[in-house]
Amino acid sequence: MSERIWTAALVVIGDEILSGRTQDRNIAQLATWLNVQGIRLAEVRVVPDVQEAIVEAVNTLRARNDYLFTTGGIGPTHDDITVDAIAAALGVGVTIHPAARAVLERYYETRGGITDARLRMARVPEGAELIVNRVSGAPGIRHGNIFILAGVPHIAAGMLDALTGTLEGGRPVLSRTVGSWVAESEIADFLGTTERAHEGVAIGSYPFFRDGRTGANFVVRATDRATLDACAEALIAGLTSKGLEAVDGGI
Amino acid sequence: MSERIWTAALVVIGDEILSGRTQDRNIAQLATWLNVQGIRLAEVRVVPDVQEAIVEAVNTLRARNDYLFTTGGIGPTHDDITVDAIAAALGVGVTIHPAARAVLERYYETRGGITDARLRMARVPEGAELIVNRVSGAPGIRHGNIFILAGVPHIAAGMLDALTGTLEGGRPVLSRTVGSWVAESEIADFLGTTERAHEGVAIGSYPFFRDGRTGANFVVRATDRATLDACAEALIAGLTSKGLEAVDGGI
């Protein structure tokens, strides 16, 4: 019986990513966090601060994944349109969440007080709950299987931390890395054969160039520990038999 | 008369990005390069090493953008399926490109010689041209308005360098950054008003947290220099009139 695979998608919202001004860090951060929850990041889209683009991405991706995350566009300024766009995607209205309002009033008490602009950050799609923000004022938002996170990576990290262990997932994906000073093209056939010989395992090959030499890391992934180890051992044995040094990077 | 806007999309291909193992650097790198060519990066998708996922992304995005770029999946190993997937998306066959073969034979002459696996990197969708790779062996591939680049960022950078100035675009997007020690929520209304008062300009607001203080960078973007400067000056004047220091970060 094949194992149920839980998937998530991410919509990164923001002109600053598409303009190259800001280097995205949320894709890798979310992916790593999801692995631990036993959920696979299946696809990502980066879209501009344009409502139709957000709606299209959100509706397509939420229909075919167990979870949908967004990052960015939940601040107080005119270019922060994520809440409105997701409400439009869901066909619901936008409302001020009383608990979010209370959080913001408390947060801004010593910071100049609440204003209309700041109150924008208490707006949520109707039917939403809040995700605790341990880092700054405005909370994240959960609406069913949609998770609306901040764009600033360390704030998003805090929101993910608050969600840890609350999402249903499968077994975490385990990985083991084997490194070798070899051009991947030299052992490409061996890699393919080894992967096919171990069901439920995927081997990724990632070349690197260091000190003028060529090497590659082979990342073995599986949800089952014994299967993972059997494949990694076969990889190491095969490399060694070819006279190559295989460095077991472990888990 | 409104200006023709040239757009490009990017498909980032690779399980290593979706697993969080590798931090993508190609989105920001391509975006920055495209700005200089007068082309806007309009959307990005990150897809796994799965043919149907690549085909869907490539066909959707090439239909609605002037250019389509892909990064990743053009190496010699079993998980490198970009060429086959793009050929499938285009409905053409895959062929060995004679010039790519010659490049690889020369490159591997002193590196153990050409092999079947290495020859995989000479495979292109029928009708393709090559993009020079100044960094390592395997070239990039151009098929009409599709540009197939390496996933390793410094190799992709070399391929972009080889393409510099060869693509038709509009006027480059210019930007000017104004920084201030202010919470963006304090001046959100002013930002919106200023943007609306200057047609053809977009203002992005990007908060930061440094030394325990809150600040924000306001990035003004436009293709016309005079319009850009007028908006930036209005922004600086407005901030100053509110008793805030405005740091003109320039272009």
Describe this protein's structure.
Two copies of one chain form a homodimer. Chain A is of the alpha/beta class and 251 residues long. Chain A has two domains: 6-163, 3-Layer(aba) Sandwich (Molybdenum Cofactor Biosythetic Enzyme, Chain A), CATH 3.40.980.10; 174-250, ACT domain (Alpha-Beta Plaits). Chain A is built from nine helices and twelve strands. In chain A, the strands form three sheets. Chain A has a six-stranded mixed β-sheet, sandwiched between helices. Chain A has a four-stranded antiparallel β-sheet with strand order 10-11-9-12. The first copy, chain A, is elongated, with a radius of gyration of 22 Å. Chain A starts with 5 loop residues before the first strand and ends with a strand. At the A-B interface, α1, α2, β2, α6 and α8 of A face α1, α2, β2, α6 and α8 of B. β2 of chain A pairs antiparallel with β2 (39-47) of chain B, so a sheet runs across the interface.
